[in-house]
Amino acid sequence: MKRQLRLYIFIFILATGVCYSQITLAGWSAAGQTNFGVSPFTATISDANVSVSGINRGAVISTSGSAIPDAWGGAGWASTSANAISTGAYIYFTISAKLGYTSALKTLNLYYRKASDGPPGCLMQYSVNGSSYITFVTNSNLFNTSASGGSAITAINLSGIIALQNVSVNDVVTIRIIPYGNAGYWCVYKSSGNTDISILGTVNIASLSIPTSLTATEVTETGFRANWTSASGATGYRLDVSRNPSFSTFEAGYYDLNVGLVTSFVVSSLNSGSSYYYRVRSVNAGGNSSNSETQSLTTLASSKGYVRVTFIPEGYYNYELGNLLVSDTFTVTLANVNGPDYADLETASIKIDSSTFSGTAEFSSAQSGNYYIYVKGKSAMSTWSATPIAFTKGGTVNYDFTTTSSKAYSIPGFPYLPMILQGSKWCVYSGDVDQDELIGNVDLTLIDNDAFITKEGRTATDLDGDGLVGNVDLTICDNHAYWVVESQSPRKMSAMANKKIYLPRKSYLK
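The chain above was modelled as a monomer; its predicted structure follows.
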C-alpha cells in the first residue's frame, strides 16, 4: 500500500510539475574575491529557470583600506537602519522566475565575517515590482561574532511570506540586506560550502490560462491579422485556421502553427471573399492550454480580375517541335462592347509561356461585365476576341485563340482570315513592327534596315525571336506585306460602316 501511494505521488509530480524539494535558486561564493570584491557580485549558481541579478553594494560603502581575502562587502556602514536606508548603506539583489515558470522563495542562508567594530545589527526587506519595502528580519544582534573564521546566521525562513511563494516572470523581487550599528567592515565570507549567500526554494512550471481570442483586424482580400490576449504562464502560442467552424480541416500551414510569444499574427495566402475561422492555444514546457473561443471573418471580395489568354505569335512558333522559340511579353486589353469606338478600358502585360502559349493578365480597374479582349505587342498583329468575354472581379476567365480561326474577330467580306494556321495551331500574324494594325512597306523597310546591319537583340524587327534580324524575319514580313494584311476588329468594322475605311482589295488565305 505504501509503495502504491509513493507511485501515485510520483505520477502527480510528473503530471503537475509540482516539486516541493528545495533547490538553490541563486547562490554566491566569496571564494577568490579580493579588495572587498566587485559590484555587482555575479551569482555563482542560479537555476536555469530563474533570472537573478548580481549583488549590488550601496555607493556609500567603502572598499578602501586593508581587506581580508575571500570576502565581499566593505566598511562605512550606518549607525542605524533608518540612516542606512536613507543613505543607501546596504546590499541588494533581484530575483524572478523565467517565462513559463514560477518560483517560491523558501530559505535565505548567509555566511559572514565582520570586524570587531563591524555592524552587529541587520534589517532585511523585500519588495515586489518596486513596491514599498517590507521588513522580514529585524535583529540588532544578528551578526554577533567577529570570529576570524566567519559565522553562519540561522537560516531565514521565507516560506511564510505569501508574496514570495508564487513569483512569476512578471514579478521582480528585490531583497536588500542592511547591516547597521557600527562602521567597521562587514562581508559575505567564504565558507566550507559551495555558496556563502543563497536563496533556496522551488521552481514549477507555470499554470497555463487560456488566451481570449479577439476580433480579426486588417482584413484584406487574401488575409487578416488574428488577435488574442496574453495568457499567464505562456511561453508561446499555437494558431489554427480553417474554413469550417468545426476545424475538421485546416488551411495549409495553419494547423498548430507556432507563432511565438506574440498576441497577434498575420495570416496570408487565403482566397478572396471567403469565410475563415481561427483559434489559439497557449503553450509552455508543461503542454498546451485548451483552445480559445473561435473567431470568424470573411476576406474581402477581390478588387482584381484575371484573364488567362492563350495565343501564339506566328514568328516565334516552331510547329514541328510544338513550342515557341522564346517566352516574351505582350499586352492584353479590355475594350468596351459598345461602338462606335469600342474604347479601351484597361491594358495589362502578360508573359506568354513557351510551352503552354498562355499568360494571365491582371486587371484592377475594370468592373465586372462583358468586354472584348485583344492581344498585341512587339510585331504581333492586334487580334481581337470573336465575341465579348464575361469578366468578373475576383475570378479568372480563359480565352484560347489557338484552336480555330473563329476565336478571332472576323470582318465579313475581308479577303483573308484573322489569323494564320501553322501546323495545327492558329497563330497571330507577325510583322506589324510599327503597330499600326497593318503589315506593309513601312514594316518591311524597318526590318530590312536592321537586317542590313545584322542587328542583334530582342527587338520588334526580330520576328522569329532568335535574337538576330535577318532573312527569316524579312521573309515572314514580306509574305504579309505583299497582301497588306490588316487587323480585324469591331472598331474597324464600325469605321467601315461609317465609310471611313474600305475593304482590302487583295484576296489572301481565303
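The chain has a mean pLDDT of 92.
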